[in-house]
Amino acid sequence: MTPPEAPVDGKNHPGDMPPAASVCAPEPLTVLRKRSDFLKAARACRQGTSSMMVQARKRAPDEANGIRVGFTCSKKVGNAVARNRAKRRLREAARAVLPVNGQDGWDYVLIGRAEVTAARPFDLLAADLRYALRKIHGAGT
What we know:
Belongs to the RnpA family. This protein is α/β, with parallel strands linked by helices.
């Protein structure tokens, strides 16, 4: 069954079915939530860039599938507003870069840097993440 089209006159009529709620593809990334997952990534590979620190680890085959990612910013980044803005920008960079440049079976933790993560132009932020992934996966780990 195809989703119903929007009404031609732009008005809702009683009995009309609403259009599909979402036409986006499902999110390929899973967000890390457990502290233990963050700690495991902290003990593995690290790559710093001018706008963020990226920690990564290859999971064991019996662990979760897909690409998992976590985000964190310390109080050095600033107040809650600044930390949340930095994390939002890291989430968008991860959403754009990790499905293409990340590897299945890996966990990534993106750590914001004080004053830089929130202020860096988005294309450079994404380029920094791509650079960090090349360095991490090029290391043969």
